[in-house]
Each structure stands twice: as C-alpha cells, then as structure tokens.
Sequence to fold (717 residues):
Amino acid sequence: MYGFINSCLQSLVMDRFGQDTWDKLSSLPGVQDSFMTYMVYDDKLTLKLVQEACSLLDVSAEVFLKLFGEHFFLFCKKAGYDTMLRTLGGNLIEFIGNLDALHSYLALSYQEMNAPSFRVEMTNDAKMLLHYYSDRKGLYHIVPGIIEAVARDFFDSKVTMTVVNQTDEDERTGKKEHVVFLVKQTNQGSTGGQDLSMHKEEALLRSMRVRCGTFARTKSGWDLIRAVVLSEKDSVHCTFTPCYPDKLWVEEKAFCNAFPFHMVFDGDLKVKQMGVKIQKFLPSLHARDATMDRNFTILHPQVTFTIESIMKFINSQFVLKSCKDKNTRLQLRGQMLWMESLGCMLYLCSPKLRSLQELQEVGLHLADLAQHDVTRDLVLLNQQRLAEMELTNQLERKKEELRILSQHLENEKEKSETLLYAMLPRHIANQLKDGRSVKAGEFEVCTILFSDVVTFTSICAACEPIHIVHMLNSMYSKFDRLTSIHDIYKVETIGDAYMVVGGVPVPTKSHAHRVANFALGMRLAAREVYNPVTGKPIQIRVGVHSGPVLAGVVGEKMPRYCLFGDSVNTASRMESHGVPDHIHLSTSTYSALKDAGFSIQERGQIEVKGKGQMTTYFLMGNLLVSEDSIMGRAGGQTCLYRDDLYDQSQKESDNKPGETTVTVLKDSCSEGRVDPDLSQLRPIAPFAWDISLPFETNKNRCNKSTSSFPSKLCALF
Fold:
C-alpha cells in the first residue's frame, strides 16, 4: 500500500487516541514514525499496524476498520480531494458507480495502486446491493465506514450496511475477496425538515391551483395537466426524452477514423469491426476467426472474458491488455456499450498512458490519438504532475533525513547532558550552558560525609589492579544508587574515598537525616562487596559533620563543583578518626539527629588532629525506618523526609486543585522525619549512572528494578 494509507492510519490513531498510543505503535520493529505519500510499503506493515492497534486499544478489527473508513473519507477531503469526490455523482448510486473511474484516474499518479472495485446491483424488490471486490482479504469492514460517511456528508442521508452471505461468483478470477452488502438509505431530515418539506408542497399546490384557474379557460383534460406541470419548471424537473435519428448519418470510414481505437465484437467475442489505429498496432485482429479473449486480457475489472461477465460490469471502466503480440505493451481503457439490435458489444477506448515516456515505449505519437480524445491533454498534464510528484518525493525524503538527524542530535545531546549532570549539579550545569557565570554560594548549614575502605593500601598491594577496579566499581555503583534514593549530592571520589553532601546545592531542612540514612545504607551496601584478597565483605569508615560551607565551580578544562570551609576538614577528621564498620558523628550532627528516631551511642572525648578534644558519637541505626526502606528495596519505596512530602503535596495541589492532598503527620520526637501513610505516597524511582566506554547512557535505566543494575566501570576522580 502507498504511504498515503499508512499516513491516514497514523492520523486516525493520533487524533482519536493520542500521541502516546501512536508512539507505542511506532516503537514496534519495522515501523517508522512517518510515511512518505508516494512510497509503496508492504501490505504486511499496514495489516500489522491494524492488528497491534486493535490489541492495544482492546477493540475488534470490525470496529477499528469501520472507524478507519470514516477517517479515511475525512483524510481524503483534507488532502485536496474534496471537490473531486463531490462531483462523482448526484446520488449515492452514481457516486459508487464512478469510484472505479476515480481509481483509474488516480492510478496515473499512483502507478502501483491496487484499488478495490465496486458494483451496485438493484434487485427486483428495489433493494440496493453493493458488491465489493479486493485482492486484500479481511479489510471489507472499511467499506461501511466510508459509504456511511459519504452519505452523511454529501447526500444528507443515513446508510446502514449489512453483509449478505453469498457464494463466490464465477466472474472473479484468482483468489479475490468478494463481499456483498445490503445497503439501506434513509433521509436524515428532522421534524423541522419535514415541516419545511410540507410547506414547500403546500406552496407548490397553491401555485398549481392559481395556474389551473388561468389555463382552465383555454385548456381541458390532459392538456390542462400537461400545461400546469410544464409551467412549473423551477419547482418540478422536466422529464427528458432523447430523440434518435431514423438513419445514422455517419460513414463507416469516417467512424473508424474518428474513433481509431474502437472495437465491435459479438456474443461469441468474434471481432466484427475495429478502428484504424487498432488495425495498425494489432494486425492479428484481421484474421477471420480472431476473438477478443485470444488477443486481450481484462485487467480491470478482473472478470472472465465473457459477454455475461462484461454485462454485469457494464457501468465500469474496462482496461484491456494485448496478449497476442509480446512486443506490444499496448493497454486500452474505455467503455463497453451493448447494442441490443445487433447483438454486439461496442468498446470505445483509447490507449492507457501515464507519460510521454510510455507513449514512446508503445510506439505511439500524439498524432495517433484523435483530436477529440482527452488522452492527448491528459498525457501532457500528467507529465507535469509526475515531475511535481518526484519533487514532492525528494522533499519528503529530505524532511525524513532531517528528522532522523535531528533525533540523533537530540540523543547525543542527552548523552552529553547526562555526563555533564554527572559532574555538576543540574542547575549549575544549565547556567554554564547558557554562558552565565556561576557565583560561589554560602550555605549556613549542611551535612558532609566522607568514607574510605579499611586496609585499602594492603588490598592494593596484594592483588591485581583490575581486581581493585572491579571492587571499587561495585561499591561505588551501590553508593551512587543510594544518593538518588536519599537525594543528596555526590561531590567526588578520590581513590577509595567517597564524599557526599546534604543541603548543597539545594538547601533542605532534612539534610542531616538524609546523610545519616545514606550512611546507614552505605554500611549495608559495603557488606555486599567482597575483598578480592580475603573473599570476605569489606569494611568502611564513615565520618559525618554538619556546619557551614562555601560552594562553587572551580576550573575551566574540567570544572568541578567543590566545597570549601572548616566543616569539610572536620568531616574528613571524623572519617580518619573513625572505627571500621562504624559511622562517626560530630557534635553538630548529633544535635540534628538526637530527636529524630535514630539510635546513637556516645563515643566520648577523643583527640582530633587540628581540633583538639571533641565529643563524638556513633550512629547505630534508625529505629523508625527499616533497612529495606533505607536501601530502597521496600515495596513502594515511600518518601522518608518531610520536605519531600511537602513538595509532593504541593505538586499534587497545583496539578489537581480540586482534590485532597497528602496529609503529613507530625511526630513530637522528630524534627525532620515523619511517619506518612505509605499507601498514599508515590514511590521514588531509583536511578543509577551507567558510565562505560564509549560513555553511552541508557535513559530507560531509571525504570528498572533496583536489583537489575549491572556493574559498570565508574569514573574515578
């Protein structure tokens, strides 16, 4: 099928069911986002789109195809065929009877078009039967949708169509589908329309009474009735009776010259007469026993070459192809007329040509066509149209190439931005992309965490470097996922040291609670990473401190968002003076966590390098949150922090102003942590960076389960 059909199908899905539905369909293998109008696509692609659309929308093929038929009619009108369709006939029967002629004309532009065929049959009891023939099976449900839309739009009537069970007819050749519809047509006029019709009838009767009074003085009987009817020319259509001459005043020679491509044959298909050009190009017809079926095959409509079959399609346009002379590619197109008195069939035709090139290929010249034959003008006009079609094809190809390049560019842009956002906070990176300078910012309070691997130097000395890389990659991948769960910023990694901060670059009141839960998660995650030397789980030291910092972007070649201040140094001292597999807290961090439901143990006074005596603490656990929630493994993974709940409820209230928002329950013993109703909260989707050679990213990674993240080589800074 041509891309015009697939474009119509795309338009139907997008207009009726939304862009998301089409995106799902176009994501199927072998399906593209757009189609070129004059390009031929495999029928299997269209049928696959129909099947997948029915499955996705949970509708039957009959319903979807009928809907497609209605939309196809509207799509053709918008494509510029409105006037052409309106002029096909003055009523529905004439419209259907000229559809084959329309398809024949369109075949000049769509050379590979394999259109269906239609035939109207009126039964003895005045019932209308529509015969539908097609080489494609299973698509006949489109027909009711098209015909009903045509009747409603063009003829202001309502049509109902039902399939009549009928056996295959003998006039069809090959494996073709033949479906017969019973068509019932009723006027769609409302009560107001009926009243208007009654008023018109009354006005007509009054006018006739007046005229009867006028003519009654001079005429009587049938003369009076005839005079009244003929006088109402504006209201009543006059019947036309053609007048035929007693003798045909045309010479045989003149007729054969005037119609150079006509043929006359009898009921046995024997050729009786032919035009001069037929004699020239098909000399085999001069034989006394020459018959039509031996010299021609019927291309359209595809019926057997018998008088009976031709009579059934007498209102159709017939296309014949010469089959006697293999060197001749001549095709004829024209009308069949049955001459009852002679018992012969007249075939008035002309060569079927699309372009001047085809004219040359069959060995014809414009002079061979009769002066009155519109084929002369049609060939010249279509030659120009074919050139316009080729230009349209080129523009569509360039458009498709630009769309693909634009999509590739957008994908590469996303990869670059992903790498940039991995190095810098998103809003900082956006400022740098816009060419704006990023000023250093002072944060009054935040929480900083440092960690390192116990006996890392000994491990490095005892095993291969690649084993170290694998160990760190496994550990850091787990840590990176935890930063996304608790929404804290990863500052950098240096060797085995890992540094994060809460409350920077986006200030938050729950910075200490986030970092504390992250530290607990780090300790659990580290137990899943094994020492390449001993084969046992590794141990880490963690130090946490809360205080003011100054943050800003430093460097040009490889800019980094760094923290400065004594709080950074203190946090580093908490880590270096810590105990393996423990989380070491400073006094300021302890003050932020002591009433938030955390289990904290006092370590006492210790000597800290550069700080002197300090009272420090060990974070043992969180009494109010399970380990699965901290690790992001809990079913539903709910929000753990008050500001997340507030932001979420604000978004919901903004998006749905008339609905109830999430209620936050305050705890008397918690400053930053709450116990929300878990059933009402949306989960936090885990995310993990996937940075591997050649630095490709997978944007769908965030939709995977937390246990499906593979280990990738992470960047070490």
Remarks:
- Confidence is low (pLDDT under 50) at residues 190-196, 232-237, 651-717.
- The first strand starts at residue 117 and ends at 122.
